[in-house]
Amino acid sequence: MNSNILPLRRRGNTLPARRENESPVMAIQNEMNRMFDQFFNDPFTLLSMPALRSVVDFMPRIDISETETAMLVTAELPGMEEKDIQLTLENESLIISGEKKNDLEEKGKSFHRVERSYGSFQRVIPLVGEIQQDKVEAKFKNGVLNITLPKTPAAARQTHKIEIKSS
Hints:
Layout: H1 24-41, H2 49-56, E1 62-66, E2 70-76, E3 85-90, E4 93-100, E5 119-126, E6 137-141, E7 144-150, H3 153-157
Antiparallel strand pairs: 1-2, 2-7, 3-4, 4-5, 6-7
């Protein structure tokens, strides 16, 4: 490796201990320098196995929109069934959680590339305004979960459109 491209070269493999008067920003800078040094020395040691696993774990994509009367949440959950999904309203948040399982065990097959992801997930969506909890509806069809969260009449009235004037 050509060390001339690096602006700063440390001696040894260890960083000096953090001094009491050192700013937290310098601690972050030192950690970033250590990570860059480690990357240029051996780029594949930067990601440990747990970190690699978290990159490929399943995390559903969601869309959140709002009308005057309700909040609408759409989640893509391909390959899942409604029994694998849990919805809860808690602390002014909607929590979508579940687990996408890989039930298929193929013996004697050698995989060269695996792009499908599996694992447990949890998405917490903060809710704007008060929701009529007893009127929340969730529909699941073709791997897409649609959730309608109706606002209370008081929350629906709080919406006020502001006119923009040109100067």
